[in-house]
Amino acid sequence: MFPGQGAQTAGMGAPWRDHPAWHSVVTPAEDVLGRPLEPLLLEAALDRTEDAQLAIVLVSLMAWEACRYEMDTPVALAGHSLGQITALMAAGVLGFEDGLTLVAARGRLTQAAADANPGGMAAVLGASDEQLAAALAAASGRCWIANDNAPGQVVLAGTEAGLAEAVEAARAAGARKVVPLAVNGAFHTPLMAEARTALSDHLAAVQLAAPAVPIVSNEDATPYHDGDGWRVRLADHVVQPVRWRQSVAVMADLGGSRFVEVGPGRTLAGMARRIVPGVPVDSIDSADRLTAEVPT
Q1: How far is 157 from 180, CA to CA, in rounded Å?
Q2: Of 87, 92, 177, 203, whose CB is crowded by the most CB atoms within 10 A?
Q3: Rounded mean pLDDT of 190-213?
Q4: Given 188, 237, 247, 283, which residue is catalytic?
Q5: pLDDT for residue 73 is more than 80
Q6: pLDDT for 295 beyond 70
Q7: Which residues contact 3 (CB under 8 A, 6 or more apart)?
Q8: Residue 286 has pLDDT above 90, yes or no
Q9: Distance (Å, rounded) from C-alpha 268 to C-alpha 21?
Q10: For this structure, is 286 an active site residue?
Q11: Where exactly are the structural domains of the chain?
Q12: 19 catalytic, yes or no?
C-alpha cells in the first residue's frame, strides 16, 4: 500500500539520506526533473500540493527500492489517491521518467484547479450513512464524499461555503467528530474538472505497460491486469472519490494475508487494521524499520 497526499511531513526524506535508495531514486529524479530535490525532502514545509505530492512519491519509491527485494511477490498493489502512481511505477506500468513527470504534472494541475476553484476537506468520524446523507443534502450540491477511508471514517470536500454547511449539518446530525484537513483544495470532487481534462491530455502521450501484479483501483475497488486503461482511470480519479475501504477489502479477498504500507507515515496501516481486523499490518516508513518489519 502506497500513501497519498496528507502523509507528508517536513524533513521526511532525512531517514533515507544515507541509504543506497537515495542515490537510486533521488539522484536520477533530479536529472529527470531538472531541479535539486534534496531541499524538498529535507527542509521544505511541503504546504504546496505540487511539492507535497512529489516528495511523497519520492520517499515512497525509496522505501520500495529498499524493501522490494526482501519480501515475497505481493498478491496485489494499491495506492491511496496519489499513491496509485507510485503503485503503477512499482508494478512496472509506468517507467521512472514517465512516472515522475506524471507526478509533477498532476501536482501542478490539481494545484491550479484548487486555486481556480477554492475549497476544502474535512474528515467526518463516527457518522452513519444517514447522517452523511443529511450533511451532503445541507450543502445543496456543493460538497461531496471525497474519501471512504475506513469504517466510520469518511472525508468530505467541497466549496468553502458548501463544506461549512455540510460540516455544521454533520455535527447537528450526530457525527462523533469532524476534523478540518490542512489542504488547499477540494480534491476528488467535480471542482477538479479542469485538472481532469489537462491530465487526460498528458496521459495520452505516456507509455503504459501491463503490471507485474494486479493493481486495485481506488475508482471501483477492482484489480486490473492491464496498463492502457490507466490513462482513463488516473484522469477520472481526480474528480471521483477514493474508495479505500473497499479496495483494502478486495486485496484481502484476493488472498492478501499481510498488508505493508510502503512510504511516509503509518495512516494506511491504521486504516487496514480497522478494515481487515486480525490481518497483520506493517509499515516501512524509514530505513531503520526494514529489518524488523519486512515480511518474508
Answers
A1: 10
A2: 87
A3: 97
A4: 188
A5: yes
A6: no
A7: 56, 60, 79, 80, 83, 261, 263, 264, 265, 267, 268
A8: no
A9: 22
A10: no
A11: 14-115+190-293, 118-180
A12: no
Q: What is the pLDDT of residue 184?
A: 84
pLDDT above 90 for 97: yes
Is there a shared CATH topology between the 14-115+190-293 domain and the 118-180 domain? no
Could you say which of 19, 60, 80, 81 is catalytic?
81
Query: Per residue in 16-27, pLDDT tens?
Result: 999 999 999 999
What is the average pLDDT score of the chain? 94
Q: Give the chain as a 3 state SS string.
A: CECCCCCCCCCCCHHHCCCHHHHHHHHHHHHHHCCCCHHHHHCCCCCCHHHHHHHHHHHHHHHHHHHHHHCCCCCCECECCCHHHHHHHHCCCCCHHHHHHHHHHHHHHHHHHHHHCCEEEEEEECCCHHHHHHHHHHCCCCEEEEEEEECCEEEEEEEHHHHHHHHHHHHHHCCCEEEECCCCCCCCCHHHHHHHHHHHHHHCCCCCCCCCCCEECCCCCCEECCCCCHHHHHHHHCCCCECHHHHHHHHHHCCCCCEEEECCCCHHHHHHHHHCCCCCEEEECCHHHHHHHCCC
C-alpha cell at 41: 525532502
Record the pTM: 0.94
**CATH 3.40.190.10, domain 118-180, yes or no:** no
62 residue type, one letter: M
Which whole number is the average pLDDT over 241-264?
A: 97
CA angle 152, 155, 158 (to 5 degrees): 150
